[in-house]
Design brief:
The chain is mostly helical. The chain has three helices and no strands.
């Protein structure tokens, strides 16, 4: 990722954003259409181990 490694200030800022209400609208806008794709990949991965 582009986030500096082992930088507690950056990690705290990012974590507070992800845990806060501000991230919900971004999650809904950017990632809502990915959920079915993620489930399909998970299902495929689980079935490969059988």
């Amino acid at each position: 990722m582009i986030i500096p490694n082992n930088d507690p200030e950056w990690q705290n800022k990012l974590n507070s954003f992800l845990d806060g209400n501000k991230s919900q609208s971004i999650d809904e806008k950017w990632f809502k259409n990915l959920f079915p794709y993620q489930l399909e990949n998970l299902d495929y991965s689980v079935n490969q181990k059988k």
